User: What shape does this take?
Amino acid sequence: MSIDLTVMYAAHDAFRRDLERLGKAAADGTAGTPAVRAGWANFTRQLHIHHTAEDSDLWPRVERRAEGRPRDIALLADMAAEHARIDPLLTDVERALRDGSAELGSLVHALATTLDEHLAHEERSALPLIQEVLTPEDWGAFTGRIRKTQGLRGAAVFVPWIVDGVAPADRATFLGALPPPVRVLNRLFWEPGYRRKGLWVN
Assistant: This one.
């Protein structure tokens, strides 16, 4: 039985989208606005939750299933190392935003390039490995950890954040992977609340 990775791919696309938005804001001089700062704060929170859950739960779970396969174990070490390379770049961008630094654009570019390389590597190599070695129960335990970390209040931001500005077909695919009650909550309450926050909107 295959694992549904729809939400994983959608989160990756949302990370890429937000850094495109930040790069544009840096270029047009709006990076210091409350809307952009709020968008950046949400981006860093979502990325922290995502990478922390991978490092503490997902990669160790895959490693146990891939025991005796040195190449796969090395891949998982690469995933953790790539996360570690991203962290100081996040700090650099945060500092540049706070200080109004002229280097913000180049720092955002460095972060976006490094993160995209990591996400592409994960999609090319680690996600197929996950499909190969994990059971749906393993995957459910990992996603359950993320849901517990997010909580209901976090989910009320996460779900509409994922579909913010995406093409209708991609929106339908993502929402279709969620339980019907979550889709109802998102339509009636979460998306209207998210729009009122005005993330990235100037």
